[in-house]
Amino acid sequence: MRVQIKLYATLRQYAPKENEIGDAFTIEIENPSIQGLIDYFGFNKSDAKIIMVNGIRVDRLDFKLSENDLVVIFPPVGGG
Question: Are 51 and 27 in contact (CB under 8 A)?
């Protein structure tokens, strides 16, 4: 199944090199869930602080995704 992804801040390292900041990119995923996305990219759940699917915040790892959903992931805020 295909889903659209936007990754921000430190998670941008998992986006395609040619991907511009704020632009979505498409991936094919076998496990269409938030946990499936985390496994696909290989980062920890703690690295994905805010997850939104089609503009709605999602906290459950078992949340099921649908074809062409837009998933936006933000890491924890850093700074000093």
Answer: no
